[in-house]
Amino acid sequence: MKSKLTAVALAAVVVAGTAATAIPASAATAKAEPTRCHTADLKAGFAMGDDAKPEMEQSERQTQAYIWFTNQSRRTCTLSGFAGVDMVGAQKTDGTWSLARSSEKPTKMTLEQGDTVGFSVNLLPVAGSTPQKEKFVPAKFLVTPPDETEHFTLKWPFGGQILKQDGATHPGTYLNPVGL
């Protein structure tokens, strides 16, 4: 019944000789909010600039590696939350280490076509004298965008070793949300 009344009211405006510029609210097209980015919308990689490389040769303090996502789709999309990051070790004893998340609060990031956003991974490198069983030697990072199930496989390009804390409650190696 409502659509019939709308059509009758619109016809009355046209019959009266007035241009029909009013469009019923149900027919108006509002610009839709962007939806989340999917793995297929994105590219991923490690930031490789001199100021972005982790200092893996030292063992006195944490260092950071940076991973980026670029929107390669033709649409605007959003990312919010934490990526999933699993480190795959180079040694047979390393296995796969799913990184813990920081306590930082995520924010929604809007990416237009070609925009890039990153996140940091805090790492705790170890000294060469550390016993081998306490060392994790990264080979690959499996990086899954927030709220997705498909991942990117990124080869670890920086060398070094990380203190193996894959069972720790508060490990020194963990990741931050997208945008931090």
TrEMBL record:
Domain DUF4232 residue range list: 37-157
Domain of life: Bacteria
Pfam families: DUF4232
Signal peptide (residue range): 1-27
InterPro entries: DUF4232 (IPR025326)
Entry keyword set: Signal
Protein name, as recorded: DUF4232 domain-containing protein
